[in-house]
Amino acid sequence: MNNKDNFEYYLELSSKPVRFEAVNHLTNVFFDDSNKDVFAVRSGGVMGVVVKNPNDEGKPLSFMMEDHGPVLSIKFSLDHKVLAVQRTNNSVEFMNFDENKIDSEYSQPCKKTLMCLDLYGRILMKLFS
């Protein structure tokens, strides 16, 4: 039996694996396929958010967010200067980052007759492309 047999349920996505906190009743994990970031969000960000990337050699980005409810999706702009967080189907919160800290926050609601379908596709591709 060789070593590969021991990893029957192991999926290698990169030669540099990213280790992150397990999903549980307090922690949700999100993956940003554009930046290859892994977000571990604890208690909606109130207890902290840790962002790791397989290409980062340094310390992971760690910060806290205010309690505005559970996070449905989360994503950085390609330059990692703006964080978008979707907590409801009808608005997206934005946080500007300066020196790896939240500098300012604002939100963008959808029109009353519209619904934000998905943060990862249609919304952010138009805002950050």
TrEMBL record:
Pfam families in the record: RMC1_N (PF21029)
Ranges where the Regulator of MON1-CCZ1 complex N-terminal domain occurs: 29-112
Stored InterPro entries: RMC1, RMC1_N
Superkingdom of the source species: Eukaryota
This protein's name: Regulator of MON1-CCZ1 complex N-terminal domain-containing protein
Origin species: Molorchus minor
